[in-house]
Design a protein that fits this description.
The complex is a heterodimer of chains A (about 325) and B (about 60).
Chain A (H helix, E strand, L loop, with lengths): L1 E6 L4 E6 L35 E5 L22 E3 L3 E6 L13 H19 L6 E8 L11 E7 L4 H17 L3 H12 L3 E4 L3 E4 L10 E5 L11 H21 L6 E6 L14 E5 L13 H6 L8 H9 L16
Antiparallel strand pairs in A: 1-2, 1-4, 3-5, 5-7, 6-7, 6-11, 8-9, 9-10, 10-12, 11-12
Chain B lengths: L2 E7 L6 E7 L5 E7 L18 H6 L4
Classes of the chains: A alpha+beta (about 325), B mainly beta (about 60).
Chain lengths: ~325, ~60
């Protein structure tokens, strides 16, 4: 059962998906449902013996393309609607013990191309207004499967966090005539202390306004709104900077670094979003190697993040672990 | 299980192929493969990264 219940205090939808209570929880590696199906082995989600990158509809979706009617009737105060949308799982690799950071940069490049295809295909569905591509990594985030994978949620509305960014971007453009994120990138480049890495097409930085100690943003140098706006070189460069940042994260505390990674792109509802600017945000929960930055009363109840660290100091720490990315011979380009 | 090739797209890492199948419970599953490397890369390891701060500091462009 998937349904959307209106939160009148916040003016936003809450997805109710009771079937997710039954989803697979941290199975042993021999019974990973995201591995290929081995000869004689138990049948996984992927019926073939190997794969490169696979996308499939989530068995336990928060939104469904053909959802049932809501279990309850709505009222004027409490509107309710079917949870219509699409939830996909994206398998990065057939290797169970890998991570996105551990994959060759060429594989990350392939993933960028798959993300682009999912954005294009799902965004074209008439009931989809926003395609949200993301990864939750690590038990600290609450993942239930360790196999390297991400997800795609195709929402029937623009989610509130993105809607707020759109409003801020529009207001900034009305006030200055410029793109908000272009100005943020210019400010970060001008200061320099929070820059982590850069190439011809992207820049990675811990923003001045970071809410998590190692919150990191990757913004395109060119003013564009979505993966589908990028040319081949830009998609190549996006893979390169992702690889560099992901490896640096793992080196920071010499562990597989947990994070939430989200792609912020324009809505797909057909309106004009020229004022928006593509970027990726990472929200890592760790504030030290062994301590988690919990979202407690102020963050959750008031919406005010308390960051116990200075972005300039955290950026210096992370920057020390940035190293050149090596592409295979056949795909080498000069960055 | 229904199966069909649903698209080919060019790009820097070779053509991207989509093979879309329908699982027994009605959900779709899409295999993405790329150029001649399709289905042959299991077990590939990423290169080790430089370990020293000096090496890392020499080049931050990625």
């Amino acid at each position: 059962m998937s349904e959307l219940r209106w939160h009148p205090l916040l003016g936003e939808w809450v997805a109710t998906a009771t079937q997710r209570q039954e989803r697979t929880f941290l199975p042993p590696a021999d019974f990973c449902p995201l591995c290929p199906t081995r000869p004689g082995g138990f049948p996984t989600e992927v019926p073939e013996e190997t794969y490169d990158i696979v996308v499939f509809e989530n068995r336990f979706p928060s939104l469904e393309s053909d959802p049932p009617e809501p279990a309850v009737e709505g009222t004027e105060l409490y509107p309710v609607r079917p949870g219509r949308g699409v939830c996909e799982v994206v398998l990065y690799s057939p290797r169970h013990t890998s991570t996105l950071a551990g994959e060759p940069v060429e594989q990350i490049h392939k993933l960028v191309r798959v993300w682009t295809d999912r954005f294009r295909e799902l965004g074209a569905l008439p009931f989809v207004d926003y395609v949200f591509e993301f990864e939750n990594k690590g038990e600290a985030i609450g993942v239930t499967l360790h196999h390297p994978h991400g997800q795609v949620y195709a929402y029937p509305f623009t989610p509130p966090r993105v809607a707020r960014e759109l409003e801020q971007s529009l207001a900034h453009r009305a006030k200055t005539g410029r793109c908000l994120l272009c100005d943020i990138v210019a400010e970060e480049r001008g200061d320099g202390r929070r820059i982590i890495a850069a190439n011809s097409s992207f820049v990675a930085y811990i923003p001045f306004f970071a809410r998590y100690p190692y919150e990191l943003h990757i913004a395109s140098a060119r003013h564009l709104q979505a993966l589908t706006d990028m040319d081949d070189d830009e998609q190549h460069d996006l893979a390169g900077i992702l690889k560099a940042v992901l490896v640096a994260f793992d080196k920071l505390f010499d562990l597989s670094f947990p994070y939430m990674m989200v792609l912020h792109q324009r809505p797909t509802d057909g309106a004009n979003y020229d004022h928006y600017h593509f970027h990726i945000e990472f929200y890592p929960p760790l504030r030290t190697a062994t301590k988690i930055k919990y979202l407690a009363g102020s963050e959750t109840g008031a919406g005010v993040f308390i960051n116990d660290t200075l972005a300039e100091e955290k950026a210096a720490e992370l920057r020390r672990h940035i190293a050149p990315v090596e592409w295979s011979e056949g795909d080498a380009r000069v960055d | 299980m229904d199966e069909k090739e649903t698209g080919v797209e060019g790009g820097g890492a070779g053509a991207m192929h989509k093979r879309r199948t329908t699982l027994e419970d009605g959900r779709y599953l899409i295999y993405y493969t790329f150029g001649d490397e399709a289905d042959s890369r299991a077990g590939v390891e990423s290169r080790p990264e430089p370990e020293t701060e000096t090496e890392a500091a020499e080049e931050r462009r990625v």
